[in-house]
Amino acid sequence: MDNAATTQRAKSVVAAQSQFDLYENANIHRGIYDLSNQATQKFENTRTKIAQFLSSNNANTVAFTQGTTASINIVAQSFLAPKLKFGDNIVTTIMEHHANFIPWQMLAQKYQIELRIVPMDKNGDLDLIQLKSLIDRKTQLLAVSHISNTLGTIHPIDEIIGIAKSSEIPVLVDAAQSACHFEIGVDPLNCDFLTFSGHKMFGPFGVGILQVSEKYVEDMIPYNFGGGIIENVQIKKTNFRNFPHNLDAGTPNVSGVIGLAAALKFISEIGKSNMESHINKLTLLALDQLSQVSGIEIIGNPKKRIGIISFNLKNIHPHDVASFLNKDGIALRAGTHCTQPLLSAMGLHATARVSFSIYNNEEDINTLIVSLKELMKFWS
Ligand SMILES: Cc1ncc(COP(=O)(O)O)c(C=O)c1O
Fold first, then answer.
1. Which residues, judged by CB distance below 6 Å to any ligand atom, belong to the binding site of ligand 1?
2. Are residues 64 and 212 in the same domain?
3. Given 270, 302, 329, which residue is the final one in a domain?
């Protein structure tokens, strides 16, 4: 029950990667020989498949990265840093994962600009009235997640993007927790940057996506230099390729990208709406059952939530909860979930968190509840 941290890998993903690793392995974009050409073709075909998964027919809006964290840092260094001027501001929210918080904080410190933080209410919903008042002509980016990895809040992403777009502010959506469940992409969401990680959607570690809207692809300049991103190099000058081929200097994670394509196929075959409804059912059942455990506090009560529930037990540290449950074979996360600003805003140091995926079932929830009740008896 720690699927917000990472999901289990689909067998078809492992099979696709093994096929490449064992029989088709070659570096891409370099060789003249068949094996290398085939690897290049497979890699680039994957870009097209990923664009389709994002409801786009333009594969050149899709860059491969090492994951969500890497994608967000790329937007910070490649797109945003070169534009920043004294007096500018960046808007993000108190509910972000550190991956969608620290890169903006670092830019704000380096360029002496303002980082504006959208607050939330005690239920774990963002304050959209504050969002409206924080955005102005000097806002260079709004960075927001689709789903909170700590509270499971599904943010009203259309409304949030609409607010920024009415002032023509570029928007980055961190879709790390939503890519499995909802239709995403810069076109369907009308945002400008969209990021997710393969390992949170049945795919491999170390691979993810940055999609950029056509409006801003030309603003993505190389930030990391080396082979693979160049048109030509002379002693005094280098000419670079265009986005997305100007970002991934060096050899990319070819096998990981092939595994990611298999993961997207796996998701499409099951169907995002089937996944969403299964996880929704488990979330509602877990909320109901958890609320009957004595001494429990469920953290937040957002208007819309999916798949993720944080809670605390009276007088028991979340690490002790996780260790106790571990003896019953229950894997749940305890700690800050890389969201210290969110927890501080709620006056908390840590929580225990369950997060569901498609292979969880009602029996898992029963086991969790029995174990929690036993813990409460043991502790009292
Ligand atoms: C909402 C959110 N954003 C970003 C990340 C970072 O993802 P990664 O570690 O794959 O880069 C996570 C990981 O938990 C997350 O939940």
1. 4, 67-69, 97, 99-100, 145, 149, 174, 176-177, 197
2. yes
3. 270
Say if residues 309 and 354 touch (Cβ distance below 8 Å). Answer: yes
Considering its fold, how many domains does the chain have in total? 2
**Domain-terminating residue out of 214, 246, 270:** 270
Q: Are residues 95 and 175 in the same domain?
A: yes
State which residues form the domain around 351. 272-374
3-class SS of residue 333:
strand
Q: Which amino acid is at 4?
A: A
Contact 120, 94 (CB under 8 A): yes
Please write the tens of the pLDDT for every residue from 9-46.
Answer: 999 999 999 999 999 999 998 778 999 999 999 999 99
Question: Which of the pair, 76 or 30, is modelled with greater confidence?
Answer: 76
**Nearest atom (ligand 1) to Cα of 99:** 4
CATH number for the domain spanning 189: value is 3.40.640.10
103-142 burial code (b ≥16 CB/10 A, e <16) = bbeebbeebebebbbbebeeebbbeeebbeebbeeebbbb
For atom 16 of ligand 1, which residue has the closest CA? 149
The region, left, alpha or beta by phi > 0 then psi within -120 to 50, assigned to residue 41 is: alpha
Whether 191 is catalytic is no
Helix (H) or strand (E) holding 18: helix 11-19
How many CB atoms sit inside 10 A of residue 372's CB?
Answer: 26
Closest CA to 39 of 51, 27, 21: 27
pLDDT tens profile 287-324: 999 999 999 999 999 999 999 999 999 999 999 999 99
pTM of the predicted model as reported, rounded to 2 decimal places: 0.97
Phi, psi (rounded to 5 degrees) for 139: -75, 125
